[in-house]
Amino acid sequence: MDFTDAPIDTTAAANLAEQKLSLELLDIANDHDTAVGFEAVVNRGFYGERSDEKDVEFTLRTTAYRRTTGVWDATESDVEPVATIGTWETPLSVPGGGTVPTWAISAVTVAPTHRRRGIARNLIQSELRTAAACDVPVAALTASEATIYGRFGFAPAARVAKITVDTTRGKWAGPTARGRVRFIELDELHTSGRDIFERARLRNPGEIALDDALWSGTIDYQPGKADKAKDLRAVQYTDAAGTPQGIAAYRVKDGTDGKLTATIVHLAAATDDAYAGLWRYLLELDLVRFVEADLRSTDEPMLWQLSDVRAAKVAPYDHLWLRILDPVAALEARTYSRAGSIVLDLVDPLEFAQGRFLLEIDAAGTASVSRLEGDVPADAAHATLSERDLTLIYVGGTSALALHRAGRIAAHTDGAIEMLSAAFHSPVAPRLSIWF
Ligand SMILES: CC(C)(COP(=O)(O)OP(=O)(O)OC[C@H]1O[C@@H](n2cnc3c(N)ncnc32)[C@H](O)[C@@H]1OP(=O)(O)O)[C@@H](O)C(=O)NCCC(=O)NCCS
Predict the structure, then answer these.
(1) Domain named N-acetyltransferase: which ranges (predicted)?
(2) Is the CB of 120 under 6 A from ligand 1?
(3) pLDDT tens for residues 107-137?
(4) What are the chain's domains?
(5) Which residue among 74, 81, 337, 393 is least enclosed by CB atoms within 10 Å?
(6) Could you write out the three-class secondary structure of the chain?
């Protein structure tokens, strides 16, 4: 079943009906009043500005294809829902250069007038059941608070870092890029930048595909937020053959102590050469003392292209939250860094991923994964872990060894933790470079 055809979840609808709340799929593409109400509620939910017709038009143009659900209070005759959620299917990059179909969850809001009555719980659980019914093996979101989604089986699978470089201290000490950097206008950033992002995302586990709303929201326009385009500057990197391979969007403002700070809004590079060319350009901007970039990798190569590593302050935090719904499909989508057999006994209170699973990893790192009803094969590494712990190691964001030392993964065979750590290791640290 395609995600756009999935019906409303009857369990959640029945639960909410007990409180005289109705759960309904919204047809924002064909019902303008509904679109206006949805937009108003989402902007208010995230403490954004009052929505206007431009916001509604943008949402209709960019997100009408998504699955949009609202909750109405039957005791009120309001046109606005009291809760919202928007979901869609997207490819998530995984270690090895492949992708796994993923249920992206966004626009989760519950009106402050209706909070803590279990509305978000019903919305999230209904989307997880619907994703599973559509055979989508993983769900994903970015969280406003780290304490909300663990109870539904989500875990922070990829962390990112905010990096601030003091350019008076850290000079460029990386390779000299062979191409050139040139200014581009925003329309070119929208087209060329998006193309480069799409190529670059396969190099990084943890990235999802862009849609029009995500790319616009990343660079210059998001409903409910002030116009961000006016002071945005953008450059493109073309390689020695003249092919565009990277973009950077940034703005320069007075920072602390009257020194100028360049804030990188987004930097995407499809090659290492473009990456070096763009970072050097930004770090050598005249009059700029600090260059800051958010949503960067926790293993950012640029840190090793500076003359003084202490020139950079690196502040990591959780960003991409995943929830594994189907371990067989999820685990087969990625490749592994060590061959061998692994048996995982997964514990999942919501039961999506509950059970015993056998991974047989060949010399190329490809896994054949199956549900195992019987005993553990004699040569297999065997461990018990929660679905959330599997999520933490799934794209390589955390090591199995760290979780074992934290008392979270139990080994049943000698060397099981070393095997898990080596097999699930990702040579590229996972990273998600946008919010959704
Ligand atoms: C966060 C939000 C969606 C929660 O909605 P809600 O309907 O009040 O949540 P529920 O009543 O279904 O709560 C389910 C559980 O989550 C907990 N919870 C809800 N909001 C929480 C929060 N902000 N922090 C920690 N726990 C929270 C509840 O206590 C409850 O816990 P329980 O399992 O022990 O019973 C809502 O407060 C909201 O819209 N906030 C502003 C927008 C936002 O942050 N959206 C999330 C975007 S990622």
Answers:
(1) 23-178
(2) yes
(3) 999 999 999 999 999 999 999 999 999 999 9
(4) 3-153 (3.40.630.30), 160-318 (3.40.630.30), 326-424 (3.30.1050.10)
(5) 74
(6) CCHHHCCCCHHHHHHHHCCCEEEEECCCCCCHHHHHHHHHHHHHHCCCCCCCHHHHHHHHHHHCCCEEEEEEECCCCCCCCCEEEEEEEEEEECCCCCEEEEEEEEEEEECHHHCCCCHHHHHHHHHHHHHHHCCCCEEEEECCCCCCCHHHCCEEEEEEEEEEEECCCCCECCCCCCCEEEECCHHHHHHHHHHHHHHHHCCCCCCECCCHHHHHHHHCCCCCCCCCCCCCEEEEEECCCCCEEEEEEEEEEECHHHCEEEEEEEEEECCHHHHHHHHHHHHCCCCEEEEEEEEECCCCHHHHHECCHHHEEEEEEEEEEEEECCHHHHHHHCECCCCEEEEEEEECCCCCCCEEEEEEECCCCEEEEEECCCCCCCCCEEEEEEHHHHHHHHCCCCCHHHHHHCCCCEECCCCHHHHHHHHHCCCCCCCCCCCC
